[in-house]
Write a structure and sequence with these properties.
It is built from 10 helices and 11 strands. By secondary structure, it is an alpha/beta fold. The strands form 2 sheets. A 6-stranded mixed sheet has the order 7-8-9-4-10-11, with helices on both faces. Strands 1, 2, 3, 5 and 6 form a 5-stranded antiparallel sheet that branches. The two termini are about 35 Å apart.
Length: about 260
């Protein structure tokens, strides 16, 4: 496998009681790229993510990460290798401060279990790094705000900061702009572009304007199988993709810029 490829799947397949949710998918995610996985509802995108992070075991096929076969690795092993996932639903502690949320994520770097019962002072050594991460997602000024008081978009930004705290080589973002207004969508789009500078991003995303503006490569799934792959300019003109999304109308894809 080329060293340019950080993640590869070969004939990745998942069946649930005879229903094929992911059907012989071959993914090649380039190191340092933003790679988007798109497709109509029920196309198999989230199931594919679940296979990559080992929430599901594949029925058949192979997953390679940095050239190593990780098909049988457990979820914790996958995370330790640097594959870190954020979810569709914001996964932060609402009653902790923004800084405390990032600090919880950083505790894994102490080399011991989470220290919820210990004095806060023992964790203050993590504050400088936590502030750095908050600055990276433009939340430094909210460090001492209770997380429940943040807007939905800023909660998602905080979730990206906690994902970054896990030191990912490969970030898997599951619908990062779902449920957001235009202002928050634009903030998260800029944020993903910013944090991708030193790492690889694989994202499932419905918002075509986000995909068009930041994705280097797009893989389109339909009924669990790969329908098309390439840059947005190429994929958006593919008649099969237009048919899958719009029944032939194509306005959603063509007008996404």
């Amino acid at each position: 496998m080329s060293t340019e490829i950080i993640l590869e799947t070969r004939q990745l397949t998942k069946e649930f009681k005879g229903f094929v949710a992911v059907d012989h998918v071959n993914l090649n995610v380039r190191r340092g790229a933003i790679h988007a996985l798109i497709g109509p509802n029920g196309a198999g995108k989230t199931t594919c993510f679940n296979l990559l992070t080992k929430f599901h075991a594949p029925t058949s096929g192979v997953i390679l990460y940095n050239g190593r076969n990780i098909t049988r690795d457990a979820p914790a092993q996958i995370a330790r290798r640097g594959v870190i996932r954020s979810f569709q639903i914001s996964a932060v502690f609402p009653h902790l401060s923004v800084l405390e949320n990032v600090r919880v994520a950083l505790q894994r770097n102490l080399g011991s279990s989470f220290h919820f019962w210990r004095s806060e002072k023992t964790l203050e050594s993590l504050n400088p790094r936590a502030i750095e991460l908050l600055a990276e997602v433009d939340l430094e000024s909210y460090a001492h705000t209770v997380t429940a008081e943040l807007s939905y978009g800023r909660k998602r930004a905080l979730e990206i900061a906690t994902t970054l705290a896990m030191e990912p080589q490969l970030m898997l973002l599951d619908e990062p702009t779902q449920g957001m207004g235009l202002e928050d969508v634009d903030r998260i789009r800029r944020l993903i572009k910013k944090v991708s500078a030193n790492r690889t991003v694989l994202m499932v995303e419905h918002n075509m304007s986000v995909v068009a503006s930041i994705a280097d490569t797009i893989t389109v799934l339909q009924r669990g199988a790969t329908l098309a792959e390439g840059p947005y300019a190429e994929v958006s003109k593919n008649p099969a993709v237009i048919e899958a999304y719009m029944g032939g109308a194509g306005t959603e894809l063509a007008g996404a810029h």
